[in-house]
Specification:
Blueprint (H helix, E strand, L loop, with lengths): L1 H29 L8 H12 L4 H32 L1 H16 L2 H11 L5 H23 L3 H9 L4 H39 L5 H10 L3 H34 L1
Helix pairs in contact: 2-10, 3-4, 3-6, 3-8, 4-6, 5-6, 5-8, 6-8, 8-9, 8-10, 9-10
Length: 252
Amino acid sequence: MKKYLGNKIRTKLIFTAVWVFIWYCVAEGIDNEILLPSPLNVVNCVMQIVTTNEFVNVLFSSLERVVLSFIVSLVLSIIIAAVSSRYNIFNDFLSPIILILKSIPTMAFVIIILIWLDKNSAPFLIGVMISFPIFYDTTLNAIKSVNKDLINMADIYEVGAVKKIIYIYIPSVSFAIQGILSSTLSLILKVVVAGEIYGQPKYGIGASLQLEKMYLNTAGIFAWIVIIALISIVFTFLSNIVERIVYRWKRE
C-alpha cells in the first residue's frame, strides 16, 4: 500500500513538473509578464506575499470565513434534513428554496448578499448559501437510505431514539458527508474568495487579488492562485484523514 501511494505521489509530482515546464516555455515565448508571468517570478511573488506582515491576517480572515461557512452550513443542513426526513410536507415546503439556491449563478448571490450585508459578513453568508444545498441533499439522502430492516430490528429490541441516532444515523450521514467534504470545502473557499473580490473587506485573499489586479501585477495574481491551490491541497489532506477515521468507525 505504501509503495502504491509512493508511486502515485511520484507520478503526480512528475506531471506537475511537466506542466510547470510547459508554463515556463509558453511564458518565455510570449515574453510579456502582464499576459503570462514566468513560474520563477510567481514563486518570488509567493515568497514576498508570505513574508509580509499582513499575510497572516489576510490568510486567517479568509480561512475563518470558510470554516464558519462550513460549520454553519453543515449544522443547519443536518438539522433541517432530519426534520425533512421526518415530515415530507416540510421537505416539499423547502424544495423551491433549495431549487433556487442550486439554480442561481454564484455571482448573482454575491451581488445580492453584498447589498444585504456589510463587506466583512457577506463572503461568509455566500459560502453558507452555496454549500447548504449540497450538504442538505447529501444528508437527506443518507438518512433516507438507512436500511429499513436495521431500523425495524432496533424497534423490535426497543432501542432508544438516542442510540438509533448515534449508532445508525450518524455513521450513515458521516459516511455520506466525507465523500463530498474535500470538494465542498474547495467550493466554499472559491465562493468566499469571490465574495471578497467584490466586497473588498479589509483583510481577505479576494481583496488582495483585486489589489493585484488594480496594479496589473499578474505575477501577484498567479501567486495568490498558487496559495489558494495549496490551501485546497491541505483541505484534501484533512478530508482524507477524516475519510480514514469514518471508514474505521464504520467497520467497527
